[in-house]
Structure formats: C-alpha cells, structure tokens
Write a structure and sequence with these properties.
The structure is a homodimer of 144-residue chains. Helix content of chain A is 22%, strand content 38%. With 144 residues, chain A is an alpha+beta fold.
Chain lengths: 144, 144
C-alpha cells in the first residue's frame, strides 16, 4: 500500500457555491464535473474534490454531519510570508471568512486560517523548513 | 496561487492511536513528529498529517467538532479491484471499522469505505478511468 492520499473530498451543502469559490475566486481549473453533485480538480500528484453532502450521505449510507468546522483542515503553502498575506487577502475577497489573520506561528512559520464556503478550514501558510518544488510539490526534508 | 492542496490534516482525539494505525497497521513511514501532538507523513507531492484535536482547537482559537464522520473523506486508489479487496482487508485487520464492503460503484469503479481511528472515513477504490503513475501520483485524464 503506497504512502499516498489519492483524493481529498469536501462534503458541501452547495456544490455550485463551493465550485465558484475555487474556480472563479481562486482561478483554479476544473478537471471534470461529471454531474452537478461533484467537481474534480487536478492537484499535484493528487485530486481535490467537492461533493454534495446529500450525495455523499447516500453513497456512504450514513448521515453526514453538518458541522464541518475544524474536524479537519486543508493547507495551502506559499513560498514567503508576503505570499501568505497576498493569498489570505485574495481568499477573503473571493468569499472566504477570515478565521485567523496571518501571523508568526509557534512552529516557526507564518500562518493564517480562512473558512471556505461549505464551512471547511483552509490554512494559508509559509513553512520555511519545507521545500516547495517549481511544480508545487511540497516535501518534508529528512529529520536532522 | 497554484492549484494544490499542500497538506491534509486530520484532527484526532488520540494522536498516538491514529499514528499506530498508519505506521504499524498500514506500514507507512513517519517523516517528522516534532511533538506528541502532531505526526507528518510524506505523500506524493503533498503532506498528510495527524494533529491533536485539542491542539488544533487552541491553534485555530475555536472549538473543534467531535463529530468527524462524513463531513469529508479521504481516498486511497488501487490499480485493480483485487487490490481494493486486499487493501480493505488489510485496513480492517489494522483496526479500521468496515463501513461499506467493496462493490461495483455507480460511477463505474469499485469502491469501499472504512472508518479509520479518530472517526474519519477513508475510501479504498479502483477507478479505471484515472491514471496512477508508478510513483503513485494519480491523474485525471482530460475530458473526452
């Protein structure tokens, strides 16, 4: 079993609203949207999806919580503190709610949090200890 | 803003228990564990993390829901239906709860769901329409 997460899926009450945030707000390109209930984005070596909460509940045959705050987070990493500031502003102007303003983080980086449509949290951060390749792949260096 | 999710983080009540599942149960290698509250795994072009629910609540300055079921899912994709069967069994024997047995899925693939320690859902699936590179990177082909 390879060490990989192949897809991260957000269950959202309104797929069209969440799609607009990523597609129009952030400028991401949709790779596929085979039904109104699901949208797929190609990310680096992985897939990011938005999926109707109702459809997910039906698929997994159990209720899906409406409380989407904090039980997990996603992260988007920038290459500098300045890029965190810019991206935080861009996300907020695209419709995300500010949760935590960009600031020096206890772990040595620079971090902020927003709540994206659907209620999920996105950390926008700069981690000077991790490598980001030109293609956006992020790598944890071996422990010193 | 590159189209990328840099890190997927699960907030869990017991980090050591969740770590045991991935490290000992699934055989994954920990890239870094800078404190007892957090564990990082290198995945393909991205990072997967386990994080103390209490520590996350403190960091984001808001309560973190204890209801972790279904508001999102992660996926691990296999290269065949048989590998789905094998991996589902491996996950269950490693301590995951079976949620949905492997079966032909409405979208044309073969899919199962388990609940990993901490309460989050992991889909174990084979999608014959998507490409998995030798290094585990998963790619959505252009729409036909």
């Amino acid at each position: 079993m390879e060490q990989q997460i192949s897809m991260t899926t957000l269950a959202v009450p309104d797929v069209a609203e969440a799609r607009r945030f990523f597609e129009e707000g952030l400028g991401w390109t949709v790779a596929a949207a085979p039904s109104p209930e699901v949208v797929f984005f190609q990310i680096v070596g992985s897939i990011f999806a938005l999926y109707s909460r109702e459809a997910l509940a039906k698929e997994i045959e159990r209720p899906v919580t409406e409380d989407t705050t904090g039980a997990f987070t996603l992260a988007w990493n920038a290459r500098s503190d300045e890029e965190v500031d810019q991206t935080f502003k861009k996300a907020v102007s695209a419709g995300a709610k500010p949760v935590k303003q960009p600031e020096k983080a206890f772990w040595g980086g620079y971090s902020s949090y927003v709540e994206v449509p659907g209620g999920h949290l996105l950390e926008i951060a700069h981690n000077p200890f991790w490598t980001i390749d030109p293609d956006g792949a992020i790598t944890i260096p071996p422990e010193q």
